[in-house]
């Protein structure tokens, strides 16, 4: 897990009352809490997607989740905590999916850095399509205060991971710029997937982008 994902989780956790985090609870209660949190996150995603973060109301989120507003505050501390929890969940799933794909490719004997990079990009874009409502929400310029800085920090970490995967020396300006451009292409494609009409169109975009990545990943000369 990247440091920025941990930071987002810590940020969200700080908004949860200390008693709610530290008290040991029976397993049955823990299971009930997981169900409540899932309902709150699902409702928050619905309302954020329909109204945007700024115009989303906590009362509506709580009502759609079937829980009182006090429960929302108990678990997430407010709207910011909900948004960061959704973002953390998306990042964790994307990282898990990409890591699993890379492990599978290496198990098959794939060692070429470009082939691994493109396989990872394909997995990431597949996740962006599967979770397109959330991916589209995160890409919008309508999040809690300070979120842009968190996103930029995560983007820089993403570039560094891609540089290691491609075996590019980040100390060289040309290599650093090339990896930054490649990462930007993937991020832009992920945003485009949010507007696709159906899976066929989405797969066409993913195939097209992966072809572009192969071309751009090849070092000049």
Helical content, roughly? over 70%
- Could you list the spans in which at least 5 consecutive residues all have pLDDT below 50? 1-23
Q: What is the ordering of alpha helices and beta strands?
A: HHHHHHHHHHH
By DSSP (H or I, 4+ residues per run), the number of helices equals: 11
Count all strands and give the number.
Answer: 0
**Can you tell me the overall shape?**
elongated
Rg on CA atoms, Å: 19 Å
Kindly state the mean pLDDT as a whole number? Answer: 87
Percent strand equals under 5%
Largest sheet: none
**How widely separated are the two ends?**
35 Å
Structural class: mainly alpha
Secondary structure blueprint with pairings:
Blueprint: H1 3-14, H2 18-22, H3 27-55, H4 58-65, H5 69-76, H6 79-107, H7 113-130, H8 132-139, H9 147-166, H10 173-193, H11 199-217
Describe what you observe in this structure.
This protein has 221 residues and is mainly alpha-helical. The protein is built from eleven helices and no strands. The longest helix has 29 residues, at 27-55. The radius of gyration is 19 Å and the shape is elongated.
Descriptive labels:
221 residues, mainly alpha, 11 helices, 80% helix, elongated, disordered N terminus
In short:
80% of the residues lie in helices and 0% in strands. With 221 residues, the protein is an all-alpha fold.
């Amino acid at each position: 897990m990247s440091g920025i994902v941990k930071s987002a989780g810590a940020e969200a956790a700080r908004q949860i009352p200390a008693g709610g985090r530290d008290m040991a609870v029976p397993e049955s209660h823990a299971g009930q809490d997981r169900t409540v949190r899932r309902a709150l996150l699902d409702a928050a995603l619905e309302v954020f997607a329909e109204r945007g973060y700024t115009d989303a109301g906590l009362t509506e989120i709580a009502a759609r989740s079937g829980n009182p507003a006090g429960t929302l505050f108990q678990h997430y501390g407010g709207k910011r905590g909900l948004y960061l929890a959704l973002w953390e969940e998306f990042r964790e799933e994307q990282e898990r999916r990409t890591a699993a794909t890379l492990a599978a490719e290496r198990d098959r004997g794939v060692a070429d850095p470009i082939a691994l990079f493109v396989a990872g990009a394909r997995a990431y874009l597949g996740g962006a399509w599967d979770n397109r409502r959330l991916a589209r929400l995160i890409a919008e310029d309508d999040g809690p205060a300070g979120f842009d800085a968190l996103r930029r920090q995560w983007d820089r970490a993403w570039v560094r991971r891609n540089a290691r995967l491609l075996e590019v020396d980040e100390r060289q300006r040309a290599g650093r710029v090339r990896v930054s451009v490649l990462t930007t292409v993937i991020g832009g494609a992920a945003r485009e997937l949010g507007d696709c009409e159906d899976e066929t169109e989405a797969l066409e975009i993913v195939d097209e982008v992966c072809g572009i990545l192969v071309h751009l990943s090849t070092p000049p000369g």
